[in-house]
Design a protein that fits this description.
about 525 residues, alpha/beta, 7-stranded mixed β-sheet, 13 helices, binds S-adenosyl-L-homocysteine
Length: about 525
């Protein structure tokens, strides 16, 4: 058949690809159709034709799949965030389970029977909505010239206006509306990626789900393009600003009431970055739970959201959250009396789905099989979340993390929770671990019982894996947010004498195609 762009076909969707796209075939020619689901009979329009396959857009669902549900979000198709919102939740879990299993088989080279035998039931969510504790909203201008915020449409940089993402906390909408109103009222320009002009780039909102504490960090463009008349106006305001004395004391009383037991430093920042900054801060500060308002300065013309400099303009520089250690009997999870309080800075990594993170960490801890005598490394430890869970059941834990702010948080978290058997090293896992190994001190740490790794999507660096193999821990617990790199790394570890024993997926990112996996490996043979 002669396939050409813009042709329309009716096709039965038979499969789902790794990015959640529907896959159908016409006379052996594969069509990849975004937003189509297995079981749909769909009318599709070809958008890009290759030699053996084509991409197509869903024009109309002629006969819906039995697994199709009505997406509750009105912009689910335009927005790039939730690729599989139209798929029934149990089927989302089944899709993720088979995505991970396929990667382990295809990339990891494991036997299919083995993978099916060792993989345990997926850990899903009872209410897979409003689970995200963190939102990063970009600001921009609509075609009509209005300031908008929302999410980037899939694979583009045009903003789909939406102040109430159904994955996020309801408070996000209030923060965004205050910001939009302020920008409109005082003519504060949104950042324009195209020419580097404008001021407000993003807002980062975080909520401690357990504590109710809210953090707002407004990311500003301080590059060349921002130095326009508006900034002059801000300067003038700054010159005539009030003194520190008495500044913001009313909010201090409001916000401290009932929320904090300990002494905290409140910041009455006089320096201004945003026109009529006091008015904006006043409004934001009145939101229930507001604990930290900061500005982050990002002068670079990049896609990276946060710049290097953050200034607290109201409240504390951090928020706190609490996580409970859970006991698991395989299926269910029950709260134990152990919990950890975490301090979280704007730039630190913190799991976005705290309800599922408790289950994930508790599973990792169960896989580590600790008895209280063990020495454990926790590589890629962030603010020490997993390390502190491990510390309950190990003799000693050593965390390694590349971001210095996160390491500071990790140390403070250990101290504030009264946990004395953890230490944190700042640096890259692939540098800290080999250096430690070369130095040859502290025999316990050189021959640890367990090494836990929780790397970013790109997985572990080969040097890090090789050092783990040299250290030969009894067990390795691999926590992964990308099953392709997980499979690649497990292949290396299993090639170096380890056996994959257990695996389980935990749905941290419901409605999206992303999935978190925990695996346990143990030594295939004992060394002398
Ligand atoms: N275990 C933590 C963090 C996991 S996210 C938690 O669950 O909260 C991955 C972490 O690895 C991030 O904090 C990131 O800053 C850190 N990181 C990225 N590359 C690294 C490297 N090469 N070495 C050490 N840490 C790294």
């Amino acid at each position: 058949m002669d396939f050409r762009k813009n042709q329309i076909y009716t096709v039965t969707i038979e499969d789902i690809g790794t990015e959640g796209e529907g896959i159908g075939k016409i006379e052996g020619f594969s069509l990849f159709v975004k937003d189509a689901l297995p079981g749909d009979v769909a009318k599709v329009r070809l958008t890009k034709v290759k030699k053996n396959y084509a991409y197509a857009r869903l024009e109309e669902v002629v006969e819906p799949s039995p697994d199709r549900v009505k997406p509750p979000c009105p912009v689910s198709r335009q927005c790039g965030g939730c690729q599989i919102q139209a798929l029934a939740y149990e089927k989302q879990l089944a899709f993720k389970q088979s995505k991970v299993e396929n990667n382990l088989i295809r990339i990891g080279g494991f036997e299919p029977e083995k993978i099916r035998r060792i993989m345990e039931p997926a850990i899903g969510m009872e209410h897979p909505w409003r689970y995200r504790n963190k939102a990063q909203y970009p600001f921009g201008r609509s075609k009509e010239g209005k300031t908008v915020t929302g999410f980037y449409a899939g694979r583009t940089h045009s903003i789909v206006a939406n102040t109430d993402c159904l994955l996020g906390a309801p408070e996000n909408k209030k923060v965004l509306e205050i910001l939009l109103r302020h920008m409109e009222q005082y003519d504060v320009p949104a950042y324009d990626e195209g020419n580097g002009q404008g001021l407000v780039r993003h807002v980062l909102i975080r909520k401690g789900f357990f504590t109710g504490e809210l953090m707002v960090c407004i990311v500003l463009n301080t590059g060349g393009g921002a130095a326009d008349a508006k900034m002059e106006r801000v300067k003038k305001e700054e010159d005539t600003s009030k003194t520190d004395e008495g500044y913001h004391t009313c909010h201090e009383e409001d916000a401290v009431a009932g929320t904090c037991q300990e002494k905290i430093t409140w910041c009455g920042q006089r320096k201004k970055w945003i026109p009529e900054q006091d008015k904006l801060v006043d409004r934001l500060a009145m939101l229930p739970g507001m604990t930290s308002i900061s500005v982050n300065l990002n002068p670079e013309r990049t896609n990276v959201i946060l710049g290097k400099e953050t200034h607290t303009v109201w409240g504390r520089g951090k928020i706190r959250d609490k996580m409970h250690l859970l006991q698991t009997d395989g299926d269910g999870f029950m709260k134990t009396d152990k919990s950890v309080i975490y301090e979280i800075s704007p730039a630190s990594f913190y799991q976005v789905n705290p309800v599922q993170a408790e289950k994930l960490y508790s599973t990792a801890l169960a896989y580590a099989e600790l008895t209280g005598k063990e020495t454990v490394w926790d590589l890629y430890c962030g603010i020490g979340t997993i390390s502190l869970f491990l510390s309950f059941a190990a003799k000693q834990v050593c965390g390694v993390e590349a971001v210095s702010e996160a390491v500071e948080d990790a140390r403070e978290n250990a101290r504030k929770n009264g946990i004395g058997n953890v230490r944190f090293f700042e640096g890259k896992a692939e540098e800290v671990l080999p250096e430690f190994y070369r130095a040859g001190e502290e025999p316990d740490m050189l021959c640890p019982d367990v090494i836990v790794v929780d790397p970013p999507r790109k997985g572990c660096d080969e040097t890090c894996l090789q050092t783990i193999l040299k250290m030969r821990p009894e067990r390795i617990v691999y926590v992964s947010c990308d099953s392709a790199t997980l499979a690649r790394d497990l292949k290396i570890l299993c090639g170096g004498g380890y056996e994959l024993r257990r695996g389980r997926i935990c749905d941290q990112f419901c409605q999206s195609v992303h999935v978190e996996t925990v695996c346990l490996l143990s030594k295939r043979w004992r060394c002398c």
